Amino acid sequence: MLDINLIRKETDKVIQRLNTRGDDYKSFIYKVLELDDKRKEITKKLQTLQEKRNKTSKEIGILMGKYKKGEIGLEVVEEKKKEVEKIKEDIVKLESDLRQVKNELRANLLKIPNLPHESVPIGKDETENKVLYYWGEKKEFPFKPREHWEIGQKLNIFDFDRAAKLSGSRFVIYKAYGALLERALINLMLDIHTKEHGYVEILPPFLVKGEILEGTGQLPKFKDDLYKIEGEDLYLIPTAEVPLTNIYRNEIIDEKYLPIKLTAYTPCFRKEAGSYGKDVKGIIRQHQFNKVELVKIVKPEESYKELESLLKNAEKILQVLNLHYRVVELCTGDLGFSAAKTYDIEVWLPGQGKYREISSCSNCEDFQARRMNLKVKTKDKRKYFPHTLNGSGLAVGRTVVAILEQYQQEDGSVIVPEALRDYMKMDVLQPFEALP
Questions:
Q1: All residues at 6 or more sequence positions from 402 whose CB lies less than 8 Å from its CB, including other chains
Q2: Among all residues, which ones are annotated catalytic?
Q3: Which helix (H) or strand (E) holds 253?
Q4: How far apart are CA 246 and CA 212, in angstroms?
Q5: Which helix (H) or strand (E) holds 236?
Q6: What secondary structure does DSSP assign to 353-383, as a single string?
């Protein structure tokens, strides 16, 4: 969440920068400031009453001494005790009011997205994103390239109909070489990120509590896109970013461990609530998909250098697979809720004739650390909120799509990229005929 002190100190600048996202956040910001003023007012009254209670309690002790000496009557002591009891009742009421205001303040802060970094281009939506550069060349085909779903079904490695029988729409069964290709890609990605890029592999839970999703920014805004376990405070993760970033939630970690670099393979689960009618064919937009995630926890002054490094780490997978792609800088109107700056990697899909996102690499600055109360302690005992970064390294299903479309052959077979041949023990994907 945003720093309330920053909001108070630079109110107009914060509103102006937030509004570049495409909505008007003025009322949100002023509501937050109003609640914070109320919090301060109640806190001040509470402190005054607590001091009065303490002072009056001491006076009772003095009066009791005088009563025992016969200098005053008992009614004087009892009157003072009644005064203390009334103060205590007022304190209880104010403490309740303070909790309510704090909860309301936090609830409003949680609804405000991150401030776009000043280097992010201003734009209304994805049409105004900025293409930075391309890698590799588009492959030329002596035939009309097919789309991945058609290739996969002819190879008998995708089964959409039977998946729908099991789970409904937007699910797929990977069969034989399809399952092998997916598994090989996961292993390749994890091996490169751990052995070459220095990430530590984690296998996190795939179910997390609501407060964990709140920490990374999925709740409360994206509640409708999450799968919740009925009757429990548990959700299926929409991305490994959620458990990885939250591992050190409510902790103070020693600065000597930074930068922390984590990677994980997990399945991911999303309702895709706002995407009905989009990408209905194939595996571009599924309710369940596999992804290898990259997460960094870093010093604030190093976070933008680390973002460039994170981007290069994700790109390396596509380069090893020799898949043509481009890198795009997102404009303010297309920026994710928790991100201050984001690069998208978009891979070329010749069957579709378009570039599609395969990784988003984002710097969230201290936005997530504040939400999850993650702090770092320096040698001189100073504490600060670190910056968190995340990126797909990569979305596995979409990498399968890119391989099928970029490496397809006229006879319906698919060449296996050289980097995967040791994992798969084959050079070419041919139709699998041992299963119906």
A1: 318, 321, 323, 347, 348, 349, 358
A2: 270, 285, 357, 360, 398
A3: strand 252-254
A4: 6
A5: strand 235-236
A6: TEEEEEEEEEE-TTHHHHHHT-EEE-TTS-E
DSSP assignment of 151-207 equals HHHHTT-EEHHHHHHHH-SS--EE-THHHHHHHHHHHHHHHHHHHTS-PEE----SE
Assess contact for 276 and 224: CB atoms under 8 A.
Answer: no
Structure tokens at 114: 């991150």
Q: Sign of the CA dihedral 307, 346, 371, 201? A: negative
Which are the contacts of 312, defined by CB distance < 8 A and separation ≥ 6?
none
**Regions of the chain with pLDDT less than 70:** 274
What stretches of 268-337 show up as alpha helix (H) in DSSP? 303-320
Q: What is the pLDDT of residue 277?
A: 72
pLDDT at site 272: 87
Per-position b or e across 149-160, b if 16+ CB within 10 A of its CB: bbbbeebbbbbb
Q: How far apart, in Å, are the Cα atoms of 116 and each of 13, 205, 241?
A: 11, 31, 20
Whether 354 and 322 have beta carbons less than 8 Å apart is answered as no
d(CA 157, CA 163): 12
Tokens linked to 196: 């070459």
pLDDT recorded at residue 64: 85
Provide the b/e sequence for 333-371 (b: ≥16 CB within 10 Å). bbbebbbbbbbbbbbbbbbbeebbebbbbbbbbbbbbbb
Sign of the CA dihedral running 305, 306, 311, 315: positive
Helix (H) or strand (E) segment spanning residue 106: helix 74-110
First to last CA, the chain: 52
Question: What is the per-residue pLDDT across 136-184, written as a single tens digit (0 to 9) for each?
Answer: 999 999 999 999 999 999 999 999 999 999 999 999 999 999 999 999 9
- The residues pairing with 251 across neighbouring beta strands, listed in sequence order, are none
> β-pairing, 288-298 with 252-254?
unpaired
- Cα 266 from Cα 269, distance rounded (Å): 10
Cα torsion 63, 65, 68, 74 to 10°: value is 10
Residue-level length of the chain: 436
Dmax over CA atoms of the chain, in Å, equals 113
